[in-house]
Amino acid sequence: MALKHPGGPTGPDRDVPVNPLYTRDDIQIPRHQMPEGEIEPDTAFQIVHDELMLDGNARLNMATFVTTYMEPQAGALMAECRDKNMIDKDEYPQTAIMELRCVSILADLWSAPDAERAMGCSTTGSSEACMLAGLALKRRWQQRRKAAGLPYDKPNLVMGVNVQVCWEKFANYFEVEPRYVPMQGDRFHLGAPEAVALCDENTIGVVAILGSTFDGSYEPVEEICAALDTLHAGGGPDVPVHVDGASGAMIAPFLDPDLVWDFRLPRVASINTSGHKYGLVYPGVGWVVWRDDEALPKELVFRVNYLGGEMPTFALNFSRPGAQVIAQYYNFLRLGREGYRRVQQNCRNVATYLSAHIAEQGPFELLTKGDELPVFAFKVRAEETRFNVFDVARGLRERGWLLPAYTFPAERTDLEVMRVVVRNGFSHDLADVLLEDLRRLCERLKEQPHPMAGPAAGGFHH
């Protein structure tokens, strides 16, 4: 009933409709069309919330490189900035300043000649960053060829077959011939001699990966640059290098400071990373930095004035949230070099602990140990004929673990492996739980006569 003040004026009925606690009205809601009318916000929330419970637990997803844990303070800052449009630098000048600070911090971390004047920007992830770096390589090559009066219609890009799919997209979308170095024997990534062998006057660059997604290994950037130096000194083409450091560019500076892979090498023109991988930010931010303004052709930078002030923009996307950029700056302030070192070292410690104990479990053999990226790959030994990696992946899903099982690419498609990615928030305790679950599963799988699952059951699409 509506409550009324004794003797007070009469007014409209103020009863508030409230859904019962344990049941809701019986309504039909279409799944593939927009409903004709509104429903209660709590009802809409519950429908979406309940279906999302069927998703996997992100913390137990050992396939993803993407951050699944941040501090509450970072989450609060992101909530404050979720309505800020990163492109609108005139309206949100302090957010824009923090973005530039992040670029300078990364340029310094990667040994740029003049970090405060380095060219760079945030992106929606390392895929967009790779596209921008690839475009800069292509345009610089075209400019040189035009100036020399030479044809510039057949650009190519040299890379290992293990590159992330974004490079395949770049080659397709921007009409660049991809030249892939296949895996061979126990070499699962790009090697220096193999890279140089594919370079010619039409090569816009070589992509070297600091941390292969297939097995977590670093590609030998310094060796690749040295081989390209020798090629050029002998009268061959002058080929720049882009380092795809989607993961490793936020690992190596802290854990492998003596490894030379960055702008200390004059041939390295640009570097990208994923802020939302080992940059420790929730999904939605990547970074790309060029060694100097000569590495980024000016014609690729657009200037717009219709947001309230003239500003440069170089991106494939336009509007995007500023929250992840702010979270990145928060992490840089909060952790500093020592904090990042401790976080990444703990990830590596857990990865090598896990890999060592998995190797001790008879049926498995390691391809990598997790001592570069905190990522390792392993396979079922050839003499074990009762189950395969796809059986293992399917069995672990029953306990909530998501471990990818997949085959390697060209020349090693015979190799069926599993991979474990250790991220911040995956503890030694969880590692022990995974090991025990894996042990029990293997005992069960040994009772079956032959492998029961194939790639469709436990597969992973790179």
Short précis:
With 462 residues, the chain is of the alpha/beta class. It has 2 domains: 74-332, Aspartate Aminotransferase, domain 2; 345-444, Aspartate Aminotransferase, domain 1 (Alpha-Beta Complex), CATH 3.90.1150.
Question: If you had to describe this structure to a student in words, what would you say it looks like?
Answer:
This is Glutamate decarboxylase. Pfam families: Pyridoxal_deC. Its EC number is 4.1.1.15. It is a single chain. The chain is of the alpha/beta class and 462 residues long. The protein is built from twelve helices and 13 strands. It has helices spanning 41-52, 72-81, 93-109, 126-147, 165-173, 192-197, 221-233, 252-255, 323-360, 389-397, 428-445, 455-458; strands at residues 119-123, 156-160, 177-181, 203-209, 241-244, 268-274, 286-290, 302-304, 311-313, 364-366, 375-380, 405-407, 416-421. The strands form three sheets. A seven-stranded mixed sheet has the order 1-7-6-5-4-2-3, with helices on both faces. It has a four-stranded antiparallel sheet with strand order 10-11-13-12. It has a two-stranded antiparallel ribbon with strand order 8-9. Strand 12 (405-407) and strand 13 form a beta hairpin. It starts with 40 loop residues before the first helix and ends with a helix. The model is unreliable at 458-462 (pLDDT under 50).
Write down the domain tally.
2
CATH superfamily membership of the largest domain: Type I PLP-dependent aspartate aminotransferase-like (Major domain)
- Under CATH, the topology of the largest domain can be stated as Aspartate Aminotransferase, domain 2
Topology as a string of helices (H) and strands (E): HHHEHEHEHEHEHEEEEHEEHEEHH
Helix content: 25-40%
Give the spatial strand order of the biggest sheet: 1-7-6-5-4-2-3
Q: What's the main sheet like?
A: 7 strands, mixed
Instruction: List low-confidence stretches.
Output: 458-462
Radius of gyration: 26 Å
Structural class by helix and strand composition: alpha/beta
Shape: globular
In the CATH classification, which architecture of the largest domain applies? 3-Layer(aba) Sandwich
- Put simply, the count of helices is 12
Distance between the termini: 60 Å
Mean residue pLDDT: 90
CATH class of the largest domain equals: Alpha Beta
Number of strands: 13
Strand content: 5-15%
Enzyme class: lyase
Protein name: Glutamate decarboxylase
InterPro entries: Glutamate_decarboxylase, PyrdxlP-dep_de-COase, PyrdxlP-dep_Trfase, PyrdxlP-dep_Trfase_major
Organism: Yinghuangia aomiensis
